[in-house]
Amino acid sequence: MNKLLILALAGMMAGQGAAVAATSIGIVTDNGKPVDFVQRNLPAGTKFVHKPAYPAILENFANKYPLGVYNASTGAAVSGPNTLHGQIWLATSFTPKQDATVKEIDVAAGYIAGTKNLVSVGMYADASGVPGTVIWSQKTALPTFSGCCSIVALTDKAGVAVTAGTRYWVGITTLANASDTSAAWNLVVRNQIKGALAAQNRGSGWLAGEAVPNFAFGLYGD
Fold first, then answer.
1. Cα 90–178–168 angle (5° rounding)?
2. CB 11 within 8 A of CB 73
3. How many CB atoms are located within 10 Å of the residue 221 CB?
4. Which residues on adjacent β-strands are paired with residue 54?
5. What are the extents of the domains in the chain?
């Protein structure tokens, strides 16, 4: 399998040497519908406790590490077409082991620069090994990159049904009204050897490959 050429961004490159200490809870709106957006931040050296609203369906956060659940200082670039690197959209695949309803998607990602702090987090059906039809998406702001630990939790009480043994994708993309946004999707620390099927869209469609390490995310529901 080909490895994706992923542009990695270090925390100091983003000008964010200090950890974020504030805790905030807010609401963003997507198509007129209220969406829960929870930004969980802790000072450096504080034990991080990840508490999703629903049981885990699948996640790659390193919950057994007391001082960090993902690589807080390094992430893969996500950017719009009106940025230095041009459009870079990212997605990673997952295959549930049992039928479930996804009611919460968590991503570890951070905002770096741009007129608007706004991206779209989406779930996609599979289309012959790359992301296909969008089956769920929400617009959201991101915590500032970097610093440990912040997780964006997007919830939907109705949820999205997924089928056991079927491949799906979770992706982060930019928006037409935020085309100069630059962000980073943090990388996992739990598995830095075995690659994951991921995809990148530089403006000419999705290209699948292997991401090592994978992008940090979790799916929760029932």
1. 25
2. yes
3. 22
4. none
5. 8-202
Q: Which residue has the tokens 């990695």?
A: 8
Residues 6+ apart with CB under 8 A from 86: 79, 202, 203
Query: Tokens in use for 120?
Result: 């779209």
C-alpha span between 100 and 96 (Å, rounded):
8
Q: What is the pLDDT of residue 212?
A: 72
pLDDT less than 50: residues of the chain: 1, 5, 10-47
Token pair belonging to 22: 């504030």
Q: What is the pLDDT of residue 199?
A: 94
- pLDDT tens-digit map of 41-86: 444 444 455 678 899 999 887 655 555 566 666 788 999 999 988 9
Alpha-carbon Rg for the chain in angstroms:
16
Supply the pLDDT for residue 58: 92
Taking a C-beta distance cutoff of 8 angstroms, is the pair 95, 167 a contact? yes
* Cα–Cα distance for residue pair 163/141, rounded to 1 Å: 29
